[in-house]
Amino acid sequence: MSLVDHSVRAEPSIAGVADYLALLKPRVMFLVVFTALVGLAIAPGQAHPLIAFTALLCIAIGAGASGALNMWYDADIDAKMARTSDRPIPTGRIAPHEALAFGATLAAGSVFVMGVLVNWLSAGLLAFTIVFYAVIYTMWLKRWTAQNIVIGGAAGAFPPMIGWAATTGGIGFESVLLFLIIFFWTPPHFWALSLSRAEEYALAGVPMLPVVAGPAETKRQILLYSLVLMPIGASPWLFGYAGPSYGTISLIGGALMILLSIKLRRAPAGAATDRAAKHVFAFSVLYLFLLFAVLLVEQGLGLPRFHVPG
User: Fold this and answer.
1) Per-residue pLDDT band at 4 (split at 50, 70, 90)
2) pTM
3) Do 204 and 224 sit in the same domain of this protein?
4) 166 and 179: one domain?
């Protein structure tokens, strides 16, 4: 008897362009490219416009590759959650092996082009970021520990460092500060979202903090991280690497983040908690965007550049 099951055939994909774009997680890609742009723009020296464009394109493609590989591996989880059940793989519009091939090709191509046309340090950081997100976070941390988003959040924090390395060929202390801002921003941002999705994560078997430790502990952790985030967010100004406009925005934004986190912690269970969590989540996006946007504006206006105080 033949060992090949002829009843199972590889059917052609019914996916359209929009489905492949969805695999790239465009909203996440936008944030990645924006923070990388800031790192590239404020770094000392000036990259050739073509080099800068190439670097940002490779970072965007690498981020998209990470998203595609994440969706390939997490298709079983995505199918069980309302927020993700309509993604291309759970709905059958894209076959898993197609998503894997798509993501792997984009990943390899983005790293190779980055290395050849920009520099190999930025390419190495890009490769590490892709592997960290697609393998360490997606395949291991996400399904293993409630601290998944804390450790895995490092993947989203590397783009400013990659942009900085694309311009300078090195890693400066200033770029590390930008890394730390995103790293400490990620847990309260994502835990606020996961509070209203705890039942879905439990059903999918994902040990998110609200599932493992409960809403009360999650609220406490959000507040603790928000308290740490305020001085970290202000650190470029505190170290003398950014102007007073950045300092003002970072302090006001950090204070509002703390106030919203306090309101969330005090909110009773149920609809009140969901509303307060959505407020924290929405404001956290605005907070991070404003921090990086002000750095970019200060650079464009010729205000104090990042530099090592002498």
Assistant:
1) very low
2) 0.91
3) yes
4) no
Higher per-residue confidence, 304 vs 191: 191
Q: How confident is the model at residue 12 (pLDDT cuts 50, 70, 90)?
A: low
Domain ranges, residue 66: 17-171
Tens digit of each residue's pLDDT (9 = 90 or more) over 98-123: 999 999 999 999 999 999 999 999 99
AA letter at 140: W
d(CA 130, CA 108): 10
* Mean pLDDT of all residues in 16-37: 95
pLDDT (0 to 100) of residue 13: 61
- Residue type for 167, please? T
Q: Are 287 and 163 in the same domain?
A: no
Q: Which of 108, 143, 171 is the last residue before a domain boundary?
A: 171
Task: Fill in the amino acid letter for 104.
Answer: A
Task: Indicate whether 166 and 27 sit together in one domain.
Answer: yes
Q: What is the CA radius of gyration of the chain?
A: 21
End of a domain among 117, 145, 171?
A: 171
Domain at 126, CATH number: 1.10.357.140
